[in-house]
Amino acid sequence: MGLRYSFSRKRSRFTGLIALVSMLGMVLGVASLITVLSVMNGFAGELRQRILSLVPHAYIESTSGGITDWRALVEQVTAQPGVVAASPYISDKVIFGGPYLMHGGVLTAIDTASEGNVSRMPEAIVTGSLAALDSTPFSVILGASLARVLGVMPGDTVEVTLPRITVTPLGAFPRSKRLQVVGLFEVGAQPDTYQAYVSLDSGQKLFGEQGRVGGLQVKTVDLYQAPDIAGQLRRQLPDDSEVRDWSQTQGSLFRAIKMEKIMVSLLLLSVVAVAAFNIVSTLVMSVAEKRRDIAVLRTMGASARGVMAVFVAHGLGLALAGISIGALLGALLASYIAPVTAFVEGLLGVKLFDPNVYFISELPSVLMGRDVAVVVLASLLLSLLATLYPAWRAAQVAPAEVLRYE
């Protein structure tokens, strides 16, 4: 009976219009929420893939300042369960100087032979090669965006000022060195704007490490098992060894993305809430129209709980129709957001996502069944709450007062 009330053509046009608006609001709210969550999943996946392609799963450093016998430590670490590879590195913040301006960044010395085992940095090189770092003394590979900012290209030189002091008869000066640019890398994320690489041999001379390295980069069998494996390494290594995993070095970024997703979800859920509480208006008007029907049902023996159930079903019928259509529309839009965006760009004649600005050329989207289920259940819960008061008012209708003059 409640479903018949929901989709009956005999109700007044105004009540039908309010019901249609409520259902369309639910469709819009559910579809937009599913689509936005899928796009945010896509952005998070892009960031994870791009940033973590250069970030090792874990780091091992010495609190006593540098690691001398790093080759033995590499053998010890790679023998541990869950560790795939390890590679030495030296890294510090520096100032890069181009022909016209200076820019801060991070200079990392790597072992070119083993770097590909712990990161995807060799695959990200777009100009030059990793081998050029060994063949050309004091050479550097810059991030593509950093090179653009400095105004240099492969073949040019950059002045690097390191946080080290050189003492001369004329006084103490910061250590600086001219490095030849032999390549560029690009991952389409923030490391392109500040990261640069030199060979391990050049790095040891620049940083004055004299055969030592700053630490080891470690790759594990699985990115998400890295915190547990890092904990195991921490217990196996000497007390002066510090072990950090990617969730400690980059985790704040992904926690911020997760928090942003939650906040956007709550904001968009307000659209669903407005649509759900529009159902209140629909049911209140339906109760006013159906007072005579309610009175007849009560005189025929229907209980107050039964009348209340009829109007709860009436409201949930409208909500279920809107939620089902919205979930289907949202899933389709999330799955085909890239072609839809391309169509809009072609229609308007503009480029919505310039890869030079946003690092992407199209909207990424990852549709997750868990998100769809959460949106549907939350919408159903809000709709159920919205139906309770009008249904309770319907159950309070007194048959004698309604039928007194019939």
From TrEMBL:
It is a multi-pass membrane protein. Keywords: Cell membrane, Lipoprotein, Membrane, Transmembrane, Transmembrane helix, Transport. The chain crosses the membrane at residues 14-40, 262-288, 309-338, 372-392. Pfam families: FtsX, MacB_PCD. GO terms for biological process: lipoprotein localization to outer membrane; lipoprotein transport. It is found in: Cell membrane. GO terms for cellular component: plasma membrane protein complex. Coiled coil: none annotated. Residues 20-234 form the MacB-like periplasmic core domain. Residues 267-396 form the ABC3 transporter permease C-terminal domain. NCBIfam families: lolCE. Belongs to the ABC-4 integral membrane protein family. LolC/E subfamily. This is Lipoprotein-releasing ABC transporter permease subunit. It comes from Parahaliea aestuarii. The lineage of its organism: Bacteria, Pseudomonadati, Pseudomonadota, Gammaproteobacteria, Cellvibrionales.
